[in-house]
Amino acid sequence: MFKQFVPAPVPADDLAAALAPFGQSRMLPREAYVEAAVFEWEKQYIFSGWHCVGHASDLDGVGAQKAVGSGKNSILLVRGEDGQVRAFANVCRHRGHEMLACGSTAKRRGVVCPYHSWSYKLTGELRNAPGFDDADGFQFEPSAFGLTELRLVNWHGYLFVDPSGQDIDFEQHVAGLEDIVGPYRPEELTVVDRHSYVLDTNWKVIVENYQECYHCQAIHPELSRISPPTSGENIDLPGDWMGGWMSIIDGAQTMSLSGASGGVAIKGLSEQELRTVMYLVGFPNLLVSLHPDYVMTHVMTPLGVDRTHVECAWAFPKEALEAPDFDPSYAVDFWDLTNRQDWAACESVQRGLSSPHSRPGPLAPDEDGVYQFVTRVAKAYQGTR
């Protein structure tokens, strides 16, 4: 894990119960969802390691800049003149002002602090500190005051940052995934629509909901008609990701209200991939849904212990976009409806967890995917990964 690790402030007995063998285990302690101290711990020990900060296409062209996260986890993404995206701590080296406000974007040939106009090259080096050129007697070496660069990896178009610089090698983080994600070539797809949601729930509740279809028959009638809730199985991965696949009924082409596709199949997919949807969790905050004809992602940004921003994006093959009558709403409308059904359930769960009478419940046989996630979090809380 990280140097000077401190276990999460959650009851040890409840953690042990969450880590019991599947069929005997319980959910995470209530404190994991409602206590501000646990959320602060997660920011320090989970979200300071590898996590997704968006897609490379978010930064369109040289000089594109975007601030993600806030406070201690605020990150500035910048596309340089060499076309590469870099990540920096969103902190001016003068007095600590944010270079950009959280969630905001800019596009310019340099990075400029709005407080005292210190400016930096797109590579992070200090370009100009007003007033210091003529300051006789001041000891000032510009090369010592560049922006603090963070570890960043562009993997199939998804941008991952390790602010701590202490997490495992990225290859370990995504171990076992190349053969699963690679055939869909998400880096070559085009994002054509995005929806942003702010949920009154803990980020883990969203992932747990995503990791099971035990609830689908009750709240997703549209989804259940196209993809049987009891279909598919979860997969075992050696890295930090988890997930599983579900099948599409005969006669349907993809996940849409009618089962019909309004696009084209992604080239090169196998027969299995053309008949299934793969649902993956890139721990901790990326959800990737691989469809035969599009890829949908959810990127979560925790705003508080009971508040989470989610950006959902839909990406399609270029061949689909070339059709004059292409309309992505067949996928977007289906999942926006499904998302909102999920969000209502997640917010209700959060309200229930706020009750002092809430206790960790058991996992059903169909919730082995939830067990994957719960044990991953519990191990992080202990420092055993």
From TrEMBL:
The coenzyme or cofactor needed here is: Fe cation
Ranges for domain Rieske come to 50-161
Entries under Pfam families matching the protein: Rieske (PF00355), Ring_hydroxyl_A (PF00848)
Key word Oxidoreductase present: yes
Q: CDD domains, from UniProt?
A: RHO_alpha_C_GbcA-like, Rieske_RO_Alpha_N
Molecular function terms, GO-annotated: 2 iron, 2 sulfur cluster binding; iron ion binding; monooxygenase activity; oxidoreductase activity, acting on paired donors, with incorporation or reduction of molecular oxygen
InterPro entries to which the protein is assigned, alphabetical: Rieske_2Fe-2S, Rieske_2Fe-2S_sf, Ring_hydroxy_dOase_asu_C_dom, Rng_hydr_dOase-A
Keywords associated with the record: 2Fe-2S, Iron, Iron-sulfur, Metal-binding, Oxidoreductase
- Where are the membrane-spanning stretches? none
Protein name in the entry:
(2Fe-2S)-binding protein
Q: Which organism is it from?
A: Mycolicibacterium anyangense
The uppermost taxa in this organism's lineage are: Bacteria, Bacillati, Actinomycetota, Actinomycetes, Mycobacteriales
